Amino acid sequence: MRALKIRQAVALQAEEVYPEALRLAKLIRSDFQGQREEGAGRGQLRQLEATICASDTVAGVLNYVKRQTARLKPWRESGLGKELLRWIEEDLPNHLDGIRRRLVDQQAEPLTETETLAVRLSVIQEYVRALVSQVEYLRVVEAGGPL
Fold it and tell me: Whole domain around residue 75: which residue ranges?
């Protein structure tokens, strides 16, 4: 029952993450629409999503974003790396607070340290899924393609 309450709280909070991902998608979309030099492009966003969703730790996520930002010029120039790191460090804690409030409203016990780590990772994964989906969608819409 507890795991279900936590999943529900994360799912509800993910709805608030979605508009934030859309803002970043609009910022970076032109830099990630096709296959570009230095290995960037749509493939890099798909790899971002796959890597983040397969990650077991937030530290692994941070290391991947930092490594890609240092390695790939479009990650730096578009602001993708900087904004992802900023979101994780500044905005994610607010979402964790929202999840904690939802659990209090459900009269559930506070999150343990282990649960907090898992929830942080889940929210990051939801953000990245939304981000990549939005960039792909905007690419089609802006190209005038059929939906």
Answer: 2-31+39-142
pLDDT along the chain (147 residues), means of 10: 92 94 91 56 89 96 97 91 96 96 91 95 97 90 74
CA gap 24, 63 in Å, rounded: 20
Encode burial over 81-112: b for 16+ CB neighbours within 10 A, e otherwise: bebbeebbeeebeebbebbbebbeeeebeebe
β-bridge partners, 57? none
Is 99 a domain residue? yes
DSSP letter assigned to residue 108: P
Q: Distance (Å, rounded) from C-alpha 80 to C-alpha 75? A: 5
